[in-house]
Write a structure and sequence with these properties.
Number of strands: 3
Strand order of the largest sheet: 1-2-3
Shape: elongated
Number of domains: 2
Distance between the termini: 35 Å
Length: 467
């Protein structure tokens, strides 16, 4: 029974976080502290909780989920009352043992976040074991350090090829064709993405900000797309550019920003949103600079507003799942989770396609599809005892507003600002629909599988930390 309760620690800790710190009851002793009946050393526990928060935040977890994990670790070792705090790149935790004794606090900064879902899964499983008991503080710390130092699970050449495969799959998904011209466009998109990846790595080696990395990474797809438009083969260079956008759009940071805002972490949400906008601005500048010269020199870059048309539904479904697979590999998702991620992606994309082809509004269809992705991702995560991020992030890839954003950029280059603003607005609205849909799916999962309440229902109002 204790193990079952420990597996539901995210829900129980979220309930505690939504309760004033002074009203949180002392959790049952589900751990195995170093001295039976006594709390573990507070300094070591705070250091452990801080490292857990640092690794989760660096992996892209929402601020509320990071705080829930830190609180679970502290309470498992009977460190109470404690108050975890996450604000964008800052992770902190404080502990007040009693009035005669001074309070303890620790904090750190996460400067270089990077998506590593294998490491995220390892940390999540460790927190579950800590909540269930049987893991000492020293052993838990050693396992966290090992997870932090562990390299990626895929050989170095596989993520590189995956970046190209992601762009190529996007061209098939957007275009909906499988003829010889479509495959030539596919190969061109793969080459452009590989060139962009190498250029981005070259810029990164000189320690330039990520903004410039996105600028140079976006340019090759635009260059190849324009060159393909100057031919008599009727090759669609615009599809190559759109495929490049799918590979570069900071989709999950925007979703995470909206989730933090919906959860009440307004400062963190604003900072994450600003970061995502800077990265998107880099992509837009890289593409529009090249588009400007191409359009003014006669390049034929017809815009396609979105991959909504059922030109070839089976092909587009396979392409969407292929895009998801490449995205999941880039995020270092564990191999055992890949089938579930692909299943979730297929369900989300099929829902979107059915709704749009039935006459539904694409933005509404995106939100509903994202809600299903979020719901299924949460259920898969609960079944496997894992974080929901590996099952949700990559599955949202096909729903990103790559085509809509390209449509808006091309309109600006052609001197049609009204149409351009409309396209940009639809791209933002689509991103918001993704975020709200995922958040709604998460809350629905909590309703379907409610965890035992850690506090009395009458004491849950108020006390939300707004950061």
């Amino acid at each position: 029974e204790d193990a079952a309760l420990a597996g539901l620690w995210p829900d129980r800790m979220l309930s505690l976080l939504r309760t004033p710190a002074t009203e949180r009851r002392l959790a049952p002793d589900l751990s195995a502290p170093e001295r039976p009946g006594a709390a573990a050393d507070p300094d070591r526990v705070l250091e452990l909780a801080l490292l857990v928060g640092e690794l989760l935040l660096a992996s892209g977890e929402a601020a509320e989920d990071v705080e829930a994990a830190m609180l679970a670790v502290a309470r498992a070792y009977r460190i109470h009352p404690c108050d975890p705090q996450v604000t964008f790149t800052r992770v902190a935790i404080s502990y007040q043992p009693g009035s005669p004794e001074p309070s303890l606090s620790a904090e750190c900064s996460v400067r270089r976040p990077a998506g590593d879902y294998a490491r995220l899964a390892a940390v999540f499983r460790l927190v579950t074991e800590i909540a269930a008991g049987g893991v000492g503080v020293g052993d838990a710390h050693d396992r966290l350090v090992a997870a932090h130092r562990r390299g990626r699970r895929y050989p170095g050449w596989i993520p590189v090829l995956s970046s190209g495969l992601l762009s190529g799959a996007a061209t098939l998904m957007v275009g909906g064709r499988a003829d010889a011209r479509a495959w030539l466009v596919f190969v061109s998109a793969v080459v452009a993405a590989l060139a962009g990846d190498r250029l981005s790595a070259l810029v990164a080696r000189h320690d330039l900000p990520a903004f410039y990395q996105f600028v140079v990474a976006a340019a090759p797809a635009a260059v190849i797309g324009i060159l393909m438009s100057f031919n008599g083969l009727q090759l669609r260079g615009s599809v190559v550019i759109t495929g490049g956008l799918y590979a570069l759009l900071p989709g999950w940071p925007m979703v995470a920003a909206a989730q933090d805002g919906l959860a009440g972490y307004y400062l963190t949400a604003a900072a994450r949103l600003l970061e995502a906008l800077y990265l998107m601005a880099g992509v837009v500048i890289g593409v529009m600079t090249v588009l400007y010269f191409g359009v003014n020199n006669g390049a034929d870059l017809a815009a396609q507003a979105g991959p909504a048309g059922a030109v070839n539904p089976p092909l587009q479904l396979v392409a969407a799942m292929l895009l998801t697979l490449a995205f999941a590999v880039l995020l270092n998702t564990e191999r055992g989770n890949l089938p579930a991620v692909l299943l979730n992606s297929g369900a989300g994309w099929s829902t979107y396609g059915v709704l749009v082809n039935a006459g539904g509004e694409p933005i509404m269809a995106t939100g509903i599809a994202a809600g299903l992705v979020g719901l299924f991702g949460q259920l898969m995560a609960r079944y496997r005892g894992n974080s929901a991020l590996p099952f949700v992030t990559a599955a949202l890839g096909p729903l990103l507003p790559g085509s809509v954003l390209y449509f808006g950029m091309l309109a600006f280059v052609r001197g049609e600002p009204e149409i351009g603003l409309s396209g940009a607005g639809r791209a933002v609205a689509t991103a918001m629909a993704l975020a709200i849909g995922v958040n709604l799916g998460r809350e629905l999962a909590r309703l379907f599988l409610p965890a035992p309440r850690a506090v009395a229902p009458g004491r849950r109002s108020g006390g939300r930390h707004r950061r």
